[in-house]
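To close the chapter, one final illustration. This time we ask the reader to focus less on the individual chains and more on the assembly as a whole: which components sit near each other, and how the overall shape emerges from the parts.
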Amino acid sequence: MAVQALKDYKFPPADAQENFHGAQLLYVGWDDHLMFCAPFAYCLPPNTPFSDLCQKFMAHSFGYHPDWKNVDFSKVTWLKSGQPWQPDMNKTLAELGLKHKDALRFQTPGLKGINGSSS
Amino acid sequence: MDMNVKKKKLGLKEKYAHMTRGLDWQTSYQPMEKVFPQATFEGIKIHDWDKWEDPFRLTMDAYWKYQAEKERKLYAVLDAFAQNNGHLGITDARYLNAVKLFLTGISPLEYVAHRGFAAAGRNFPGVGPRVACLMQSVDEIRHAQTQIHAISNYNKHYDGFHDFKHMLERVWYLSVPKSFFDDAFSAGPFEWMIAIGFSFEYVLTNLLFVPFMSGAAYNGDMATVTFGFSAQSDEARHMTLGLECIKFMLEQDPDNLPIVQKWIDKWAWRGIRVLSLVGMMMDYMLPKRVMSWKEAWEIYFEQNGGALFADLARYGIKVPDCLTQCSEDKEHISHQTWATFYQYGGAAAFHTWMPNDEEMDWLSAKYPNTFDKYYRARFTYWRDEAEKGNRFYSNTLPMLCQVCQIPMLFTEPGDPTKICYRESEYEGEKYHTCSDGCKHIFDDEPEKYVQSWLPVHQIYQGNCFPEGTDPTAEGFDPLAAVLDWYHFNNGHDNLDFEGSRDQANFAAWRGMATKNT
Ligand SMILES: [Fe+2]
Ligand SMILES: [Fe+2]
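The assembled structure is written out below.
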């Protein structure tokens, strides 16, 4: 349904990609690790290699967790917008077709958080 | 001979008629629809404004007299509180953080409510609701003022109280209550009345006001208790106005029902999301607890709210669908929200901490189905790490919900081990929401929510640094720049309670007041 308004109601989206100075937003959440209360938001250039996302940016954000050192990226499964998705570590975000504001989730089989509590 | 003696004084009923209905007139230079341009665009049909009943029948002169009396008493207590170092009477300095949350997150909303009711009063063509809205508008600005005055005593002694107005417009978690009111204020007058007059003041007020005021009473905060008492009689009037307004809309035309139902669904959900902040306050921030969030929810929402919806059923109003999820959420949201503030405690203007053993046992007893199973291991781990000098602070910004603007911290209905992700697309752009409730609100009016000022995205766009900041400079520290822009005193307002200046000062001053050394 459309908004009810007195006049024409048309405004540009506040978070259009051109507002991010050449970068794009990407969200990443780690399933069964709720120690991180919410998925993280990254603002990265589209030519960022996916391996950098995993080894640099995600390592920085998730590294506090004792499970992080046991993450084996060859066994990780990924979801994009809730659907199974297969990245190639050597490709960039753009080459993998990741769009502005895409949401990724990753699952690490065998790792279930602190005392298996999904924390 | 009989003479007509002129009565000196009007009866209450006559006076009310003259001072409300008698103040109305039909415009002649301009057509009524041009004078009241907001009266019809929302689709609400009103046939007879005179059917509006004001159960309080308060007139403006009585209002001034009555409120002035209350105000005199309030300020006498506040003066005594200040002169007798009342701030040292609280249970524990951790309590102050609940007051900080109230001052920064709630008091500015009283001011916005003042503006919103003034606007609603201006925009209703009927004189009955106009007068009622005027009085509520004056109430709300008094509430803002008395709260600010009551809490200003704490600002003399403790951190985090110094710039609430500035913070409301900028700080990431304050965008949650701010966006709630902005959303209501940018709607038409009828939606405003459902959003604030009904959902907020009637359905949810007992879950907001009562926990803070009883929390204050339990924790020795006489300043806050006093303004609570002073506002109480106004709140009763506000609740009645909200209820009268919804019944009036429903009685005026059957076409109003679906519109009113849609607004109730939307605003009940938006209000419940804001109340996550109250939940964590009750379960984690009060050194002496009143009751658990879950218990408060059961009493004030499930029981009282249930009776209200049973009453509204005769108009065809149904309990909002999204509320079925709440009976599950009541077991989780306070823990999830506190965990969020704990890890983003570097960017909050109040202190956070992990509960001690005794408090964890209280939580286990109050939440037998969830606390030990889902949260205790996490909190114990954090506490142990903090003791080892490795206190957890998240170093990356979180993903936010496009509608409620809360980090995406809520879990999937039926599975508290998984984050709930919802996604919509509008004009080629993706939008993420935290729940079915928020997604539903987005999908109904995407044109509105694409404009959301989401703090995380604004930081990434470079809009949240002090003027003249060069983010490309060597050694640029984005978090420090953002905190500066928030007007936080980095190192004093934020971080853990343990080791804070508040903790040290309170202990020293209370020691001077109660000990000889
Ligand atoms: Fe108020
Ligand atoms: Fe939400």
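Chain B has one domain: 49-353+392-463+476-514. Chain B has 23 helices and four strands. With these observations in hand, you are ready for the problems at the end of the chapter.
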